[in-house]
Structures are given as structure tokens and as C-alpha cells.
Design brief:
The structure is a single chain. The protein is α/β, with parallel strands linked by helices. It is built from three helices and eight strands; from the N terminus they run E-H-E-E-E-H-E-H-E-E-E. It has a single domain, classed as 2,3-Dihydroxybiphenyl 1,2-Dioxygenase, domain 1.
Length: 127
């Protein structure tokens, strides 16, 4: 069994698509109309046949509540791995990304957390 996709609730699919592709550097793999929303799947530029990140609209009240509550509690919605966290932190800062946690050593890992502007906190990790 393989993980082929994971969803991330977003407040605005267009805004999220721009942020995740232009700012973070993910690649759009699918963008399919589905009624009033779209099936938007992104992949890592280095693993275009890998796990897809689905930008899921938070249209359902439970999704909105979940997203608001974990954000308010400072809980990241997901985690992305990076090879050099300081380099990625600096690059994202230069692109206007707001961090809630600077790169911080946690045992053998270093993590940082930023606001994706779409209702989520995202953690990056260097292992």
C-alpha cells in the first residue's frame, strides 16, 4: 500500500495554487473543474510521480472548524521535508513568507513553521 495523495484544506483554491506553486515551488499536476471547485493536485518538482498534495476547499463547516482550530492552537496542518532548512527559510523569508517558528533544533531534526496565507500553518523539517 502506498500513499498516493494527501489533502490540505484551503480557504481559496486560486490563492493556494499561486502560493504553493510560485512561492513554495510545487508543480501543478492536475487542475480539473469539479462543479464550483477544482481537483488541484501538486507534486514535488523532484518527484513528479510521487505523492500528490490536493488543495481541498474548506467549504464544509467541519473542515472550516478543523482548520481554524488547529491554526489557532499553533498546530501545523502538514509537514514538508527540506534538504537545507536554513537555506529554505532564507529563501521563503525573501519571498515574504511569515514564519511563526524560526529554524529550531529538536533532537536530530530541525523544524520551522510558517503561515501559508490560506488558513494553515506548515512545518518544514530537515532530518
Amino acid at each position: 500500500m502506498n500513499i498516493i495523495a494527501t489533502s490540505l484544506f484551503v480557504q481559496d483554491q486560486d490563492k493556494a495554487l499561486t502560493f504553493y506553486t510560485e512561492t513554495l515551488g510545487f508543480v501543478k499536476k492536475h487542475d480539473v473543474p469539479m462543479g464550483k471547485f477544482r481537483w488541484i493536485a501538486l507534486v514535488s518538482p523532484d518527484h513528479q510521480d510521487g505523492t500528490e498534495l490536493i488543495l481541498e476547499p474548506n467549504d464544509h463547516p467541519a473542515a472550516r472548524d478543523y482548520q481554524k482550530k488547529i491554526f489557532a492552537d499553533g498546530v501545523p496542518a502538514t509537514m514538508f521535508g527540506v534538504a537545507d532548512i536554513q537555506k529554505e527559510y532564507d529563501r521563503l523569508l525573501e519571498n515574504g513568507v511569515k514564519f511563526t517558528m524560526k529554524p529550531t533544533k529538536m533532537g536530530e531534526f530541525t523544524i520551522a513553521v510558517f503561515d501559508d496565507t490560506c488558513g494553515n500553518l506548515i512545518q518544514i523539517i530537515q532530518q
